Amino acid sequence: MDELVLETQQWLRQQPVENLYVGFAIVVFTTVFIVLFRCLKRSKSNTIILAGLSSSGKTTLFYQLRDGSSHQGTVTSMEPNVDTFVLSSEAHKKGKVKPVRVVDVPGHSRLRPKLEGFLPQAAGLVFVVDALDFLPNCRATAEYLYDVLTMASVVKKKIPIVIVCNKTDKVTAHSKEFIRKQLEKEIDKLRTSRTAVSTADITDEYTLGIPGQPFAFSQCHNKVSVAEASGLTGEISQIEQFIRENVKA
Ligand SMILES: Nc1nc2c(ncn2[C@@H]2O[C@H](COP(=O)(O)OP(=O)(O)OP(=O)(O)O)[C@@H](O)[C@H]2O)c(=O)[nH]1
Ligand SMILES: [Mg+2]
Fold first, then answer.
1. Is 68 annotated among the ligand-binding residues?
2. ipTM surpassing 0.90
3. Partner of 45 for a Cys bridge, out of 67, 123, 138, 236, CB 3.0 to 4.6 A?
4. How far is the CA of 73 from the centre of ligand 2 (A)?
5. Which ligand sits closest to the CA of 52?
6. What is the CATH T-level fold of the domain 46-246, as seen in this structure?
7. 177 alpha carbon to ligand 1 midpoint, in Å?
8. pLDDT, tens digit, for every residue of 1-12?
């Protein structure tokens, strides 16, 4: 060890002083660059998006995440709710807790296009499904989810998605396994009909799954998981876990 230090010192003495300055400058620049790059990367990726059909419970979940209460009596949202806050469940934690920027995109079909504007900054997307009133909305839910899964930024950035079966406080709510299977079946049907129409004119639409195999969420390039929650009673731990996995503290 000592020999190595001596050899290094000798070698350094033999070098022209300019070389040493240049070497030192390179080390400093690289360090600054790495630190800046990390800061920029981090500051970009604390956005979590809530999307899903109207009435699925996004705004209720938004308030539950922020305030720990459901603010009884939400109405259909006409504008996205955007706020940056420390999750209510983490507010008591001492030390540094990273705030999360949560965007609640209204489910009304005319307001849905606003989703695309938020996607480039998204660290994760929570797709909220009404597990109570699921069957009549199954097709519409699958269509919206299909659109989300084939959006260019979701595919290219591999944005992780959690499908949240909400309203599980009611006994008649469907299980997450049932909802997952129904959505996979419905997306499988959509895949066949949509690729038949599109091939030529829609260029930025990505095809889903593996051709010739029934569609499953596990075939997506981004991580797609399924969870349960109740925005009304505050059972949102699975959503909080998803947020913490994707917005590092
Ligand atoms: N039982 C039950 N009802 C819920 C739950 N979450 C929301 N609701 C009810 O569902 C209705 C719609 O909730 P919102 O949060 O306004 O739905 P949204 O997804 O924001 O709807 P848009 O703003 O139209 O896109 C409200 O009457 C809520 O009280 C839940 O976990 N359980
Ligand atoms: Mg709303």
1. no
2. yes
3. 123
4. 11
5. 1
6. Rossmann fold (3.40.50)
7. 21
8. 788 888 988 888
